[in-house]
Structure formats: structure tokens, C-alpha cells
Amino acid sequence: MTTMTKAKSAPALPLNTIIAGDCIEVMNSLPEASVDLIFADPPYNLQLKGDLHRPDNSQVDAVDDAWDQFASFAAYDKFTHDWLKAARRLLKPHGAIWVIGSYHNIFRVGAALQDAGYWILNDVIWRKSNPMPNFRGKRLTNAHETMIWASKSEGAKYTFNYEALKSLNDGVQMRSDWVLPLCTGHERLKDDKGDKAHPTQKPESLLHRVLVGSTNPGDVILDPFFGTGTTGAVAKMLGRDYIGIEREAAYRVVAEKRLASIRKFDRDALQVSTSKRAEPRVPFGQLIERGMLRPGEMLTSMNGKCAAKVRADGTLVADSIKGSIHQVGAHLEGAPSCNGWTYWCFKREGKVVPIDVLRQQIRSEMEERPN
Ligand SMILES: C[S@@+](CC[C@H](N)C(=O)[O-])C[C@H]1O[C@@H](n2cnc3c(N)ncnc32)[C@H](O)[C@@H]1O
Questions:
Q1: pTM: predicted TM-score of the whole model, two decimal places
Q2: pLDDT at position 147, please?
């Protein structure tokens, strides 16, 4: 007789919820390798000594909350080590993490990231276009924060939507210095008394850039220091799933209310520019196999100066050369390389058409095919 033991199923991911509790304990209870991206805005450990006042003697609303206080650097380092370890266990093999911090903590966090086995991809300077002045005039105006972007390990195939970020930046490659304003105005959440609901609410613009650049719709994003839920709000708008962890009940209440009012952008608006390399490869030979071009048909160069004949195996032959569409084009132009897809044209009904049109036709058929 055989006895069947029921396989223990992995606990389900609590998607699109805010979990109450200590982030290390909560992360350790979630299933391993289940998250695509972690965005973490941990305590800064500001070590403020005494109140800070403006020249008119009004008090600056600085981060002096209990959650930001640690007994020593060693205590902060231990905390950082523990949460980074718990976070790394949750990441899928090709997952990545962003951690934001200031000069008070980011160097300690950077070393801890490397010690924990993460692989740093970039550090990004968020330059605040509207920073708080240095009221005492004793130091430089502290006008930036640093974000570290790291993959789970060296060699991981992390998500990077290069073309999408380039489009966001008016067609110019996105750099590692981002000029964005602090969260103010209607975006700044207030409590019942009209005071800031959270001292360190991050701007949605920052999260928009992070999530468009390093996640795709449907990805799971975890924020272990959820605060007012900026990560969740932007993730929801962008059609990503989020998991938030927050210890303080008051912040969870604010975040719940905020998230309830957020609507997801429509499906078409969520599509972003992709790299040409990410598009499915179509071999030139497929155009011949499918009868879109016939063996023996003549192709002409875009400038009309050169011609070559299509062969049954998907190569071209011209006077002195035979080879791929790229090799023959490069040889005839005397160039080191040539993109044959945009160089060669065929004739239909008297019109000269680039062969790339046929490749695009095949690609669009691939997209329409259900998975
Ligand atoms: C810098 S704030 C994050 C602000 C957030 N990014 C936003 O836009 O609102 C850090 C948050 O982490 C929470 N926190 C600190 N230590 C925690 C822990 N061990 N577990 C869970 N939450 C914690 C704090 O209560 C605080 O809200």
C-alpha cells in the first residue's frame, strides 16, 4: 500500500497589501525567491542632537522619530546586515534592489550590500531642486540623496528598460544624476492637524523613474520600509504588484487611504519603449521560406547604386561576393559593417520597399499570437 503525503505548498504572496510588523521578521516569513524588485528607504540614523531652528526661531520639522534612532553605528550596521540578508533571500535570481539614503547612512549601507553578496550596478544622485537651506550656515546645503541600485548577485540578468528611460529623458541616455523636487504641495500627505503625515515621504517622480526603468508590468515589488506607501502608490499606477511592510500603525493608516484612491493607468499607457535587441529575432531566410521574397529576386540598395540576387538559402549574391544581407551590403559599400535590413529594398507594384517592412510584419504576427 502506498501512502500519499500531501506536498507542503509554498505560502501565497500577500500581493497588494501592507503587512504590519518588523520588516526582518516579516521578510523571513515570506516565500524565498518570490520578488522581482525591492525598493528600500531605511531609517537614516540621523543622530540629531537637540532641536534645529530657522533664523526666525521656528523649529525645523526634522526626523527625530524613535524609528530612526539606533544606540550606535554597530547597532545600525547589525540592523542593516539583517534586513539586507532577509531581503536578498526574497529576491528572484534575476531580481534587484534599490536603497536610498543620505550621507548619514548610505556609505554603511553600500558596504553592507557588497558584503551580503549583492552586485552594485549604479549609484544615483537624487539632486533636490528645492532643498532645505542650511539654516546655521556652518556646512554646505545638503541638496541630494543617494540611491544604490544592485542586482542580487554578479551576472544576474536584472531588468533595465534602457529605451524607456531614454524616452523619459527626451531621447537622451538617462544619466545617474536625477534632478527632481522634494515631495511638496498636494502630493505631501497631511494628518488631521494639517501637519506632515510622515517626515520623509518620497516624491512619486523618483519612484516612477525607478520602476519604469527597472521593472515590467506584473512584477512584484516589495518595500520593507513602506511609510506612507509611495512605492505602492506608483507601483499600482504602473500595473505592478506591491507588498509593503511598515511597523508604525499611523503610517499604515495613511498609506491604506492613499492606495485606495490610486487608479492603475490603462494597459496601452503602460507599454514602454523597448530596445531593438529585445525584439524577437527574425532570420532573413524566413522571408524566403514564407514566400515573401523569391529565390532569384533582385534586391537594390536604399541609394539605388547596388544590387544583389536572393538565393534559396537566405544569402545574397552580387558580382564579387556572396553572404548574408549584412556581409554583402558592407562589402559593396566598402564599409566595416552594414545593417542589411535597412540597406536592402525590394520592388512591389513599382514601389521600392525596405525588406525591414517584411520583418516587422512577421514580428507583429508574433505579438498577436496568444501565449
Ligand atoms: C524613511 S521612512 C520611509 C518613507 C517612505 N519611503 C515614504 O515615501 O513614505 C522609513 C520607514 O520605515 C519604518 N520602519 C523603520 N524600521 C522598521 C522596521 N524594522 N520594520 C518595519 N518598518 C520599519 C518607519 O516607521 C518609517 O515609516
A1: 0.76
A2: 98
- For residues 153 and 101, is the Cβ–Cβ distance under 8 A? no
Instruction: Give the CA distances from residue 362 to residues 160, 211, 267, 337, in Å, rounded to whole numbers and listed in that order.
Output: 26, 31, 23, 25
**Which of 67, 105, 204, 252 to mutate for ligand 1's pocket (most ligand atoms within 8 Å of CB)?**
67
The Cα 339–Cα 354 span in angstroms is 12
- Tell me the pLDDT tens digit for each residue of 7-64: 556 568 999 999 999 999 999 999 999 999 999 999 999 876 656 666 676 666 666 7
CB atoms closer than 10 angstroms to residue 265? 12
Q: How much distance in Å is there from the Cα of 225 to the middle of ligand 1?
A: 4
Residue 10, all three cell numbers: 509554498
- Report the C-alpha gap between 11 and 268 in whole angstroms: 33
Are the CB atoms for 215 and 36 separated by under 8 Å? Answer: yes
Question: Does any ligand 1 atom lie closer than 6 A to the CB of residue 247?
Answer: yes
Could you tell me if 128 and 144 are in contact, meaning their C-beta atoms sit under 8 angstroms apart? yes
